[in-house]
Design a protein that fits this description.
- The complex is a heterodimer.
- Chain A is built from twelve helices and no strands.
- Chain A is mainly alpha-helical.
- Chain A has a single domain (about 50-270), classed as MetI-like (MetI-like fold, Orthogonal Bundle).
- The longest helix of chain A has about 35 residues, at about 50-80.
- The two termini of chain A are about 25 Å apart.
- By secondary structure, chain B is of the alpha+beta class.
- Chain B is built from eight helices and 20 strands.
- In chain B, the strands form four sheets. In chain B, strands 6-7-8-3-9-10 form a six-stranded mixed β-sheet, sandwiched between helices. Chain B has a five-stranded antiparallel β-sheet with strand order 13-12-11-14-20. Chain B has a five-stranded antiparallel β-sheet with strand order 15-19-16-17-18, with no helix packed on it.
- In chain B, a hairpin with a 2-residue loop joins strand 1 (about 5-15) and strand 2.
- In chain B, helix 2 (about 95-105) packs across helix 3 and helix 3 packs across helix 4.
- The longest helix of chain B is centred in the middle third of the chain and has 18 residues, at about 165-185.
- The radius of gyration of chain B is 24 Å and the shape is elongated.
- Classes of the chains: A mainly alpha, B alpha+beta.
């Protein structure tokens, strides 16, 4: 085995060049000022009114999206597991298909659909129905998040459900549990690892996104991602890195909480 | 005789594949009944129909006088021990055992007593707080049994429960199961493809093949008087030879007449003859009914396994006395050790090549 260790070298180089070094740079920029001296000033920047507002809004919207994703994805994953073998790969494919399209394009498509004079309002107008004005609201951002991240919730849950031993479910029925009790006491607890990794995979990108809020929120609604993006674009690397560090702490915190429920980390391997 | 479970005209097909064809079977109270057969014979499907996990396409399941064909598993007064234990891995051993009792809303003290009692019964006291994953296969199997019996079912269904265990443990568990059955005084319905397991534990064995019942009887009946070539072949090793019933108590095998004890087959009727390898005595050539030459010799531990070429047939012989390869021997079979069977009348009775 030892002889083959060198095979890992390209991956180690990759890891160092594109993950470790950028991370170290962010920590470095976040904790130093222009002249390279240590300071917490950039990290403390989060406390300003606008930044705090953006962070809280980000947390709120990503939480709501995660919950909606979970509520939609769980029943869907259950239905998918019930479908017969030959047709189910087709249905999973249908589900993953949108993910093959560019993420930006998908979000832009929603913008076109939702715009004031967009596709949906045009159709509604033709039908003589009042138009909807959802674009540039938090609602549009949540819609965009749910639409883009739903597959990441469905797949890990589906993976854990499909691996459940049918006889374990039979055993619960055999011991007197009705279908509701079987679900609450057996199926759901056993699928928790999938739920946990689904939550992580939706919550984290939703918390950090700036593209969805940019396109569907107009420039009016700023999430913490947008603020960090603007900082980097206007070459305020130190401020951007400082805020990134704060965001990272939130992500690590949420993952630590989730990890408690994900003891055998099943399903997380979808990454 | 009290029929506790009565299966009436059960038919079950998956698509074009008929798994059970008009099966009729009853199970008595307090009986250890084994469904025995090769894989795909319908034994597990039969068990699942009794347990309520499958619905028969036709026919009725009568339990204690009531028709329960359409009743879901959680409303049946029986419990199942599944093939791969099917323990709830997210719960402790105590929670696993308490599952059925908690559903039935029993009091905490009652449940605690029951857990203690059940763990003692399966020789695992003190394991309450362990997790299923930390137990060996044999221990998990005992927990699966404990989890089922605390509910005081009238019938315990066991689906190849020992299949995943190694030989020694399997043998120990066989005695354990007999002890449990006697202590609990309930009916066991046991599914296995292992004929030795079936012979050791059962009061009644039901031999199945391709969706049909081939023979029902006590272990002795099944072994000593197989009804057809399939049963003879499946239960233990045997010499199955085509013969002709010359008259009552006389059968012609490979051109030589042998005395037997069977009557009522008619005259000059073609039959199948079964002779167990341990029932063949190798004697001096002049004392044998026929003579032959030993062609192979294998030491099997308890006995030698020899093949003797005689009258154009390879006779399989088990004996504790050795006859070397090439030796000229006589073959003698006591009349009551010759078992005569009718030729199979339909395809489904025919012996199939066993895949196990």
């Amino acid at each position: 085995m030892n002889k083959k260790k060198w095979l890992a070298t390209p991956y180690v180089v990759w890891l160092a060049a594109f993950i470790i070094i950028p991370l170290i740079l962010i920590v470095y920029y976040g904790l130093t000022n222009d002249s390279g001296n240590f300071t917490l000033e950039h990290v403390k920047n989060i406390a300003t009114h606008n930044n705090m507002k953006a962070l809280l809004l980000s947390l709120k919207l990503s939480l709501i999206s995660t919950i909606i994703c979970l509520l939609l994805a769980y029943p869907l994953a259950m239905i998918l597991t019930k479908i017969k073998m030959n047709s189910h790969s087709f249905i999973v494919l249908i589900f993953i298909l949108p993910m093959w399209m560019n993420f930006l394009l998908r979000t832009l498509a929603w913008q076109t659909l939702l715009e004031k004079n967009g596709v949906i309002n045009t159709i509604l107008g033709h039908l003589g129905l009042p138009g909807i004005s959802i674009i540039n609201t938090s609602g549009a951002i949540i819609l965009g998040m749910v639409y883009n991240f739903l597959p990441f919730m469905v797949l890990p849950i589906y993976n854990t459900l499909i691996k459940l031993d049918q006889n374990v479910i039979n055993a619960a029925r055999d011991l007197g549990a009705n279908s509701t009790q079987t679900f609450m006491k057996i199926i759901f607890p056993l699928s928790l690892p999938g739920v946990v990794s689904g939550i992580t995979m939706v919550f984290v990108p939703a918390l950090t996104t700036f593209v969805i809020s940019d396109i569907l929120g107009g420039a009016k609604i700023l999430l913490i991602g947008n603020i960090i993006e603007q900082d980097f674009r206007s070459s305020r690397w130190n401020v951007g890195s400082g805020l990134s560090l704060v965001l990272m702490i939130f992500i690590l915190l949420s993952m630590a909480i989730l990890a408690k429920y994900d003891k055998d980390s099943e399903g997380t391997n979808i990454w | 005789m009290n029929k506790l479970i009565d299966l009436q005209n059960i038919t079950k097909a998956y698509g074009d594949n008929i798994v059970l064809d008009d099966l009729n079977l009853y199970i008595k109270e307090n009986e250890f009944l084994t469904l025995l057969g090769p894989s795909g014979c319908g034994k597990t499907t039969t068990l699942r129909i009794i347990g309520g996990f499958e619905n028969p396409d036709q026919g009725n399941v009568i339990f204690d006088g009531k028709n329960i064909t359409k009743l879901p598993p959680n409303q049946r007064q029986l419990n199942t021990v599944f093939q791969k234990y099917a323990l709830f891995t997210h719960m402790s051993i105590a929670e696993n055992i308490a599952f059925g009792l908690k559903i039935k809303k029993k009091s905490k003290s009652y449940i605690d007593d029951k857990i203690k009692y059940a763990l003692k019964l399966v020789n695992l006291d003190g394991y309450e707080n362990r997790k299923p994953d930390s137990l060996s296969g044999g221990q998990q199997q005992r927990i699966a049994i404990a989890r089922a019996i605390v509910n005081e079912p009238k019938v315990l269904l066991l689906d190849e429960p020992l299949g995943a265990l190694d030989l020694k443990l399997r043998q120990d568990m066989q005695y354990e199961l007999i002890r449990l059955k006697n202590e609990l005084g309930i009916t066991f319905i046991y599914v296995t493809h292992d004929q030795e397991e079936a012979l050791t534990m059962s009061d009644t064995i039901v031999v199945m093949n391709q969706g049909y019942i081939q023979q029902i009887g006590t272990p002795e009946d099944i072994y000593n008087e197989p009804k057809n070539a399939f049963v003879a072949d499946f239960i233990g090793e045997s010499n199955i030879i085509a013969g002709t019933m010359v008259e009552d108590k006389l059968v012609n095998i490979l051109g030589t007449n042998f005395a037997c004890v069977d009557v009522g087959f008619g005259k000059n009727k073609p039959v199948d003859v079964v002779i167990r390898p341990e029932d063949i005595d190798l004697v001096a050539p002049e004392q044998g009914t026929i003579t032959g030459r030993v062609t192979s010799l294998i030491f099997k531990g308890v006995h030698y396994e020899m093949e003797v070429m005689a009258n154009g047939h390879e006779w399989l012989v088990h004996s504790t006395d050795l006859s070397p390869v090439g030796a000229e021997v006589g073959i003698h079979v006591d009349p009551f050790d010759i078992q005569i069977m009718n030729k199979p009348e339909s395809d489904d009775e025919e012996a199939v090549i066993l895949d196990e």
